[in-house]
Amino acid sequence: VLSFIIFICYIASLAASFMMAPLLEFLLALFLFFAYASKLNEKFKGVHWPLADFLRCVTAAIIYFAISIAAVSKYSDGASKAAGVFGFAATIVFAVDFYITFNDLVTFLKQGSSDSPEGRKTEDEDSDSDSD
């Protein structure tokens, strides 16, 4: 929702050249929302969904921070200032989402490493040494 509001602010402002970043972030967030809602993450196991969400959060926070600084410093109209302020708020929201997603990603990667052949080999060696 915040990305869509920022997109509308950039359309109405003199800084319309920045409108593509919030539009793409809005569409990516919408895609991932529908992917999780329709359980695509369970159907397509080959895609690392937490990693995709993590990368989206990181890039969104960096991009929103950069274009917000540019919009606030270069342009003097109200819509550009509003888009910049909303962009700083979005930076904070995406940074919090980055932290939460990072914890999910670590859990996902730990879960994947226990399924690897190396993990099973060490478990088998441990069970063999216990039985001796």
UniProtKB/TrEMBL annotation:
Membrane topology: Multi-pass membrane protein
Cellular component annotations (GO), alphabetically ordered: membrane
Record's keyword terms, sorted: Membrane, Transmembrane, Transmembrane helix
Locations listed in the record: Membrane
Domain spans labelled MARVEL: 1-106
InterPro entries: Marvel (IPR008253), MARVEL-CKLF_proteins (IPR050578)
Source superkingdom: Eukaryota
Pfam families xref list: MARVEL
Stretches that traverse the bilayer: 7-37, 49-71, 83-102
Region spans: Disordered: 111-132
PANTHER family: CKLF-LIKE MARVEL TRANSMEMBRANE DOMAIN-CONTAINING PROTEIN 3, MARVEL-CONTAINING POTENTIAL LIPID RAFT-ASSOCIATED PROTEIN
Protein name stated in the entry: CKLF3 protein
